[in-house]
Amino acid sequence: MNAIEVRNVSKQFRIPHERHTTLAERLLALFRPNEVEVLDALSDVSVDVPRGSFVGVIGPNGSGKSTLLKIMAGLLVPDEGQVRVHGTLVPLLELGLGFQQELSVRENVELYGAVLGYSRATMARRTDEVVAFAGLERFQDAKLKSLSSGMVVRLAFSTALRADADTLLLDEVLAVGDAQFQRKCFEVFAGLKRQRKTILLVSHDVGSVQRFCEHVYWLDKGRLVMAGEASEVIQTYLAAAQAAGLTTSPLESDAETEHRWGDGKVRFTEVTLTDDEGRAVTQVTPWTRLVLRAAVVANAPAENLVLGLIVWLGSQLVYATNTRLLGVETGHLAPGERRRLDIRFTAALGNGRYTVTLAAGNGMDDTVYDWVNHATAFLVVGPRYVDGVSDLGADFDYAAAPHGMRVAPSGAKRL
Amino acid sequence: MRARSWQLILQFALKDFKIRYTHSILGYTWSVLNPLVFALIYYFVFSVFVRFDVPNYPGFLLIGIMLWSFFSEGSSNGVTSLLARSAILTKVSMPRHVVVCAAILNALLTFAISLVVLCAILWWSGTHVTTAAVAFPVLLVDLVLITLGVALFLAPLHVRYHDVGYLWGLAVQIGFWLTPIIYQEVMIPRRWQWLMTYNPMARIILYSRQAVIYGVWPDWGGILKTTLVALLILAVGWAMFQRQQARLVEHF
């Protein structure tokens, strides 16, 4: 039994070219057919969301994810195809819709609750629950404008999670609140799963999709690229993103861009990434030894040279080090001198696409000779999924313990 | 689903009503003060400067202005209501007529307060309210139906063409002078009187005055006709709204 069935849905948006700025132009435009840009937001997309399942939709920006969600929610009408929804459905495309600064916390929950379909009979009880879940009992009669923005987000999310619907559509709303609040939310998700509620999660954050979803649809440019079991689709998606990323290396251009800057006294000219047997790699399993080899040339006298490496996961810094921190002798370079730099490291990393920044600079006055973001990138895909940035290779040894036993005779910390 | 619509209409209307007068000292008094001041000015101008000889002119004036104020406020708020709530309408699926209905209900709350003031002034001016006043609620229902019908008709159009809102604002002002609100219907030259038979607002105000101010049983046949016209306006408005609402989100 499917909670949502989307059959061969297509949707076009017609975006008019708005160039009539004067009245005369406007009048002339009346006699001309209006120029419009036709955008295929979705073409022939079919999606099944089984009842009681947690389904994810991934894809880059502008791939049609949100359009699909809006069509499922009945906010947009498809040009072709059908959408069938069984049971009640609440879309959560934005948190705190209709929140009013001048109303109190309770009043806002009532208002938002009515929008989300709280029934009248349960309104009072649920309002109490929501306020308690958000941890705002003390502020329930305070006006919303006197709350911190974090409190407002918590309130909005709490209200949304209490929505009285069989199916919830979530659009990248997971990343809110502090760690403690997120833990509470995950508990609610687990609860929703137990209640056999259906949840559709749309996100370009692969992590949360991988964490919750059983089944994943991958959209690109309005077309369905792949559908299937979550880890399978996500691995293929990441590999494709990896391949696309490699086709444009900032090393190929000498121009100053947002990805590359510096005064150019020293420049990186080449970079390769291999395993320790010298084979070029783009995708590795965790714990692989990798060698990043870079060629460096001096165009002008360069003093106090420091060479550095930064590894990123998205915009999150994973690891950074340089020759000075490691005590590697680099010294000075005369014009025209060339050097080879080998950086050996272990990919003790969780699943994901990692990018590498290479940097050369003057260690004394911090001038940058060359800074190259996205110098190279690699994909880590492991046989098992671990949450987080790094793979510490944990091993769980689990055994029975006699009553009263201490794990260590002394020195064990009491929890 | 029905219950949800009602719940939403009520929540929207009550919360809007509450927000409207925050940061004001007089608060809800403002909703009465406005028509009251205008009634006072018209009374002064048209019974001291220009000598209209209308029996119980204060009551006559006040009921007319209050009925028109409701129509004016309700329809104008209703017409712009969809656009005003575009943030919610583009993100949550809900019956969209709820938003228009809430705008009308909000105006109705203001009207209810002004009715209390009307009763007080009628009592103070010594008007005898007779059993004929039972016709008044029927006329109020007609008034609400017409206001709702106009708002439902124009609100989706306003989303596409913002001119509609400005045009309607103009129409309401013109309508105020073309409807016998501060003057009597009999003052209109005979050859223009036919206009009034096609103006349901003129009918409602006329019958309301007869029933409440003058204690005369109004013409039930006329009331029936007005009710039918009101139902027709609502039906046309509803049909228009249903036709437009599906693709509404794309036009915001």
Describe it for me?
The complex is a heterodimer of chains A (415) and B (252). By secondary structure, chain A is an alpha/beta fold. In chain A, 23% of the residues lie in helices and 34% in strands. Chain A has helices at residues 23-29, 65-72, 105-116, 123-133, 149-161, 179-194, 206-212, 230-246, 323-326, and strands at 2-16, 36-50, 54-58, 80-85, 89-92, 167-171, 198-202, 215-220, 223-229, 260-261, 266-275, 283-284, 289-298, 305-313, 316-322, 338-346, 352-362, 368-380. In chain A, strands 5-6-7-3-8-9 form a 6-stranded mixed β-sheet, with helices on both faces. In chain A, β17 (352-362) and β18 form a beta hairpin. In chain A, α3 (105-116) crosses α4 (123-133) and α3 (105-116) packs parallel to α5 (149-161). Chain A is globular and about 80 Å long. Chain B has 252 residues and is mostly helical. Helix content of chain B is 75%, strand content 0%. Chain B is built from 11 helices and no strands. Chain B has helices at 2-20, 29-49, 57-84, 86-89, 97-124, 135-160, 163-178, 194-197, 200-213, 220-245, 248-251. The longest helix of chain B has 28 residues, at 57-84. Chain B is globular. The model of chain B has no long low-confidence stretch (mean pLDDT 91). At the A-B interface, β5 and α3 of A face α1 of B.
Present the secondary structure layout.
The complex is a heterodimer of chains A (415) and B (252).
Chain A: E1 2-16, H1 23-29, E2 36-50, E3 54-58, H2 65-72, E4 80-85, E5 89-92, H3 105-116, H4 123-133, H5 149-161, E6 167-171, H6 179-194, E7 198-202, H7 206-212, E8 215-220, E9 223-229, H8 230-246, E10 260-261, E11 266-275, E12 283-284, E13 289-298, E14 305-313, E15 316-322, H9 323-326, E16 338-346, E17 352-362, E18 368-380
Parallel strand pairs in A: 3-7, 3-8, 5-6, 6-7, 12-18
Antiparallel strand pairs in A: 1-2, 1-4, 8-9, 10-18, 11-13, 13-16, 14-15, 14-17, 17-18
Helix pairs in contact in A: 3-4, 3-5
Chain B: H1 2-20, H2 29-49, H3 57-84, H4 86-89, H5 97-124, H6 135-160, H7 163-178, H8 194-197, H9 200-213, H10 220-245, H11 248-251
Helix pairs in contact in B: 1-5, 2-3, 3-5, 3-6, 3-7, 3-9, 5-6, 6-9, 6-10, 9-10
